Structure formats: C-alpha cells, structure tokens
Amino acid sequence: MKSLVDKSLFLGLDCCTWLYSGAETPTLRGSLDAVNEYLHRRSKGPLGRERNSLVEAVCKQNVASLLHGRAEDVALISNTSEAIGIIAGSIPFRQGDNIVINTLEFPSGVLPWLGLQQKGVEVRVVGHTNWQVSIEDILAQVDHRTRLVMTSHVSYMSGSRMDYRRLYQSLKKTDALLLLDVTQSMGVVPVYLEDTDFIVCSSYKWLLSIHGAGILAVNQSDRVRDLVFRTPGWRSIQEQFGPSRFETYTLHEDARRYERGFPSYPSLYSLAYSTGFLVEIGIENIESHVLQLGEELIEQMRTRGYEVMTPDEQSLRAGNISFVCDQGSRVAESLQQKDVYVWGGDGRVRASLHLFNDSADVEKLIELLPDPSSLN
C-alpha cells in the first residue's frame, strides 16, 4: 500500500521510518515556510499584525472545517492542558458533585480533576476491559450530581476509539457535560463538535503542526451558555479600553472569551498551513488510508505472536496501534538506533500510522521487532 502523499513534503522522512505520530509528526516543508513568513512579517510593524490577524482567522476556519463546526466556536490557546484547565475553572463545582473519567486517559485529562477533590468533588474512574472503555460502564457512573464526563476520542494508550456520539446522546438527557480530547484523532479521523460540549486538541501530533498551540472548541448550546470564565485576559473581553474598564468587563459571546492574550503566532502560521493541507486532502481519505494500513500492521503483529491492544474492527480504532510489552522503552530505543521511530512505555509499544506511511514502513517495523518470546 502506497503512502497517501509524497514523503518528500516532509523533512526527514528520507532517512527514517516514522511511526511516531501519536507523539510528534515530522515537519511539513510548507510549515517551515509558514514560520519563516511570520518572522519576515514581524519586521513590517502594523502590516505584520494585520497579516497575523488574517492567518489567525484562516486557522480558525480550517480547524472549524475539521470539526464540522463554526470558526466562532474555536479558541486558539497554548496547549491542551491549558484548555482542560480553563474548562475545569469555568464549571461551578460544588461539594458532592462528581466527575467521570477512565483508565485510558492521558495525565492531562486526569490531574485537573484530582485537584478538585480537596473541594469535595468526587472523581469516578471507569476501568477498561480488554483495553476498551464501554459507554455502558461510563453511563453507569453518571447520576444527578455528575457535572462532567471526560474521555479521549482515541486512547493514547491502546488506540481504541470511543463512540462519543452515542455517549453524547445519552448524556444530553442529563446535566453532565461531555469533554472530548481529540488529540489522538483530529487530523486522521472525522470529529464532530455538535456531538460533544467541549473539544480540546494539541497542534503537534496528527494535525502535522508544531508545539505552541492548543485548540479549545465549544458547542455553543444551552448546556454551556451559563458557564462563567473566571480568569479572562484582555483578548477575552469586548471592549478593552472602555471608560468602565477599571470596574467591570463584558466577555465575548463566542469562544474568544477563552483567549486571554496573543497566541503563539509562529505556531498559528504553521497550524493554518497544516490544517489547510489536511482539509484539502480530506479526512475521510486519510481515515481510509490509515485504517487499511492498520489492518496490515495488526495482522502481522498477531502473526508474530504479539498481544495487540488495539481493536481489529476499523470503527473502533484510528492511527494508533499498540501491543503489550513490559520492555516497551527498551524496544523503542533499540528501534530508534535503526532509524525506526515508535513510542515505548506504559507497558506497551505504540506504532502510529498517518497519511505519509506505507506498507514498506509496516514491513520495516515487523522486520526489526524482537521476537515476543525474548521480551518475557
């Protein structure tokens, strides 16, 4: 199976096998040009600022397209952890409330809620079964005091994909909000803002951009309109220099209320380019590519005798393919010495497939992986 795009569009793919997209993606040559454009535009003073505003608007529109949403629903901030913290600080938790998370969550989706325990908020943790978390098990933990359910669309750990749209249909009958982390899915499989309350995402993984930008998207429904952002910045409000600015302020009515100050414009120039690149190729095309390639990889891993954590069924996975391995870090380090990049740790090895990967990459990994019996 061939790659979906020419590998020469990326820096470094001519000298390595990159199966590391769940952690980082290689640099798009177009992103390099975009960041250079920012640096040159910066020297033009007010004209540079005008260009920054235009690029920011394009970036939001591209992101909105990937979310099947609207640009005004998108806030661009620094990273996913900040986005989750903003949501945590906006919900008026009271003693006796609870939050539902699961055991396949990345630490950024766990720590803010643990911090609320000192206020008497209960954190309910749903365990996985065979490296998948069932919607029924999540809903069994939801009651009249549940304020939020948080889950990743695709697990960083096992690569399993949550049917969050079905979950949301049930949660809409309750007062529990849904926070969806799409860091491991946006850019490789479809995502729909209308089927959750909040979306958070990083810029430097499947979106093919660089560090320094985070996405917070808000479904502007009646479920979230009463939330109050308690720590605004100058960009969060409608009139920064009005006559009553030392007494009061009015937040923007859209997602801009969550943007405290200027974003990292070099990151936004890169993100505007990379998201436009993804939109042009089409997420459905990317999804089809990675699912077919993932089928090849899973089959070969099982043939070799690895305990694959990622589901076989295409609708239950995306780009991450993981297998159980207590020596995952050692395996990843050994492969790195041979210019094959995977993630190893947390009791597994994870290979991540994106639009630039092909069957030759799969064959290279399988060829170099140690025999499972040697890892016991």
Describe this structure in words.
With 376 residues, the protein is of the alpha/beta class. The chain has two domains: 7-28 and 283-375, Aspartate Aminotransferase, domain 1; 30-279, Aspartate Aminotransferase, domain 2 (3-Layer(aba) Sandwich), CATH 3.40.640. It has ten helices and twelve strands. It has helices at 29-42, 46-66, 80-90, 111-114, 135-140, 164-171, 265-281, 283-304, 328-336, 359-368, and strands at 17-18, 74-77, 98-102, 122-126, 146-152, 177-181, 198-202, 214-218, 320-324, 340-341, 343-345, 348-352. A seven-stranded mixed sheet has the order 2-8-7-6-5-3-4, with helices on both faces.
Properties at a glance:
376 residues; seven-stranded mixed β-sheet; Aspartate Aminotransferase, domain 2; three-stranded antiparallel β-sheet; 2 domains; 12 strands; single chain; alpha/beta; Aminotransferase V; globular; Aspartate Aminotransferase, domain 1
List the helices and strands and how they pair.
Layout: E1 17-18, H1 29-42, H2 46-66, E2 74-77, H3 80-90, E3 98-102, H4 111-114, E4 122-126, H5 135-140, E5 146-152, H6 164-171, E6 177-181, E7 198-202, E8 214-218, H7 265-281, H8 283-304, E9 320-324, H9 328-336, E10 340-341, E11 343-345, E12 348-352, H10 359-368
Parallel strand pairs: 1-10, 3-4, 3-5, 5-6, 6-7
Antiparallel strand pairs: 2-8, 7-8, 9-12, 11-12
CATH architecture descriptor name of the largest domain: 3-Layer(aba) Sandwich
Beta-strand segment tally: 12
Number of helices: 10
This entry's quaternary arrangement is: single chain
CATH class category label of the largest domain: Alpha Beta
Domain count: 2
Helix/strand-derived class?
alpha/beta
Percent strand: 5-15%
Domain Aminotransferase class V: 18-365
Protein name: Aminotransferase V
InterPro entries: Aminotrans_V_dom, PyrdxlP-dep_Trfase, PyrdxlP-dep_Trfase_major, PyrdxlP-dep_Trfase_small
Pfam family, one: Aminotran_5
